[in-house]
Amino acid sequence: MVPNGLRILMTSDTVGGVWTYSVDLAESLCKAGAEVALATMGAPLSGPQWQQVKGIPRLQIYESLYRLEWMDDPWGDVAAAGRWLKTVQQRFRPDIVHLNGYAHASLDWQVPCIVVGHSCVLSWWQAVHGEPPPRRFEPYYRAVRHGLGSADRVVAPTRAMRNALQTHYGPLPGTCVIHNGHNPALFRSGRKRHVALSVGRLWDEAKNVGAVARAAEKLHWPLRVAGESRHPNGSHTRLPNVEFLGHLSPERLRPFYSESAVYAFPARYEPFGLSVLEAALSGCALLLGDIASQRELWDGAALFVRPDDKEAIQQGFFQLTRDGALRSRLATASRKRARRYSLEATTAAYANLYTELLGSRSREQTDLSACESPQTGGSRR
To answer: For this UniProt entry, which residues form the secretion signal (predicted)?
Structure first.
């Protein structure tokens, strides 16, 4: 239960999946009676993003263009963003600070502060390149470690991500796992067609969508890919048997989930995977990378393949496209499993965490006040 009138300052990245998480959670918290200030960084809000937030009651948007800690040479912007966030705090006067990044947890917030570890550069590098991160990430490491150590609580969306943070940054003061969630009512399983779907940038080595597209060449089903297909260097990939849908808003993507029989996402690195949850809620059979986070969430409800094995990915595709009974069983299992990861459950878990931290802070202040109170009367022997 969210305490009525609870004021939450939440940060958000506008250029990745954290945006979807932040807006969904902020809207759910506001509907439950909280007031949320959403402070955005990374890039200006797009028109569709403004449409997402403009009708949410008790939500205030504070927009900035500061670079994020995982971007190239961001530290001047990170420091400036910290000063800006403190002015937002002075204006909004939150009861809780909820950071979806690391570095700013080291600021003197004077209210409980949680950090949510959605991903990190060091664990991403290890997963994608199979080797320890290079020394050029040392400033990032120091900033993240300092932030994690300063937070009142560190939250991760899976045990796998929590373990990764502890591996790369050392013991953490207090952690908990709160799964991301979605509203199941937004998704439906429509009449399935013999078509597969994958969502992500084609050149993203972590999501590994490019491997899916290349494996689709020998399929007798077409593959649709929703996401940017043009590489940052300007090159554009065209592959046989692949229909590139481009970047789609969440609303425009839902019908493609609804009619796709298979969702393929053999990621090398994915701490949670909102697109997988969306596909499962839409009744897709899942073909996933065999990594710790996805096993944790979907074991028994998906077909797993080794992300670096092109033949394994192709063989997994063949299994799901040729075996209707397997496809049906996995689709049913994934949809049932997906109901565990509801936005309602996510909101309740965060509300409980906020209440716990506020109670602990209140007790600390009471104890401190008692210690500092002047004693009256004569001394006791």
So the answer is: none
Which DSSP helix (H) or strand (E) runs through 351?
A: helix 343-372
- Residue that the structure tokens 């600021």 belong to: 107
Judge if pTM exceeds 0.85.
Answer: yes
At 127-173, the pLDDT tens digits run 999 999 999 999 999 999 999 999 999 999 999 999 999 999 999 97
Lowest mean pLDDT among 206-220, 264-278, 279-293, 362-376: 362-376
Residue 62 burial by Cβ neighbours in a 10 Å radius (0-12, 13-18, 19+):
middle
Find, among 187, 183, 188, the residue nearest to 347 by Cα. 183
Rounded to whole angstroms, the Cα distance separating 275 from 377 reads: 67
Q: How far apart are CA 283 and CA 266, in angstroms?
A: 18
Query: Whole-angstrom Cα distance, residue 35 to residue 215?
Result: 47
Residue 52 CB neighbours (<10 A) = 19
The amino acid that residue 135 corresponds to is: R
What pLDDT is attached to residue 378? 40
Q: Which two tokens stand for residue 155?
A: 């939250």
In this structure, are residues 156 and 114 in contact, taking their beta carbons and an 8 Å threshold?
Answer: no
Give per-residue pLDDT as tens, 1-51. 788 899 999 999 998 789 999 999 999 999 999 999 999 999 999 998 999
In this prediction, what percent of the chain has a pLDDT beyond 70? 92
Nearest residue to 161 via CA among 35, 271, 290, 56: 271
pLDDT bin (cut points 50, 70, 90) of residue 376 is very low
Residue 288 falls in which region: left (phi positive, over 0), alpha (psi -120 to 50) or beta: beta
Residue in 40, 114, 159, 147 with CA at minimum distance from that of residue 352: 114
Q: How far is CA 258 from CA 29, 153, 154, 188, in A?
A: 28, 37, 35, 6
Do 97 and 12 form a contact (C-beta atoms < 8 A)?
A: no
Q: How many residues does the chain have?
A: 381
CB 16 within 8 A of CB 44: no
- Are the beta carbons of 223 and 242 closer than 8 angstroms? yes
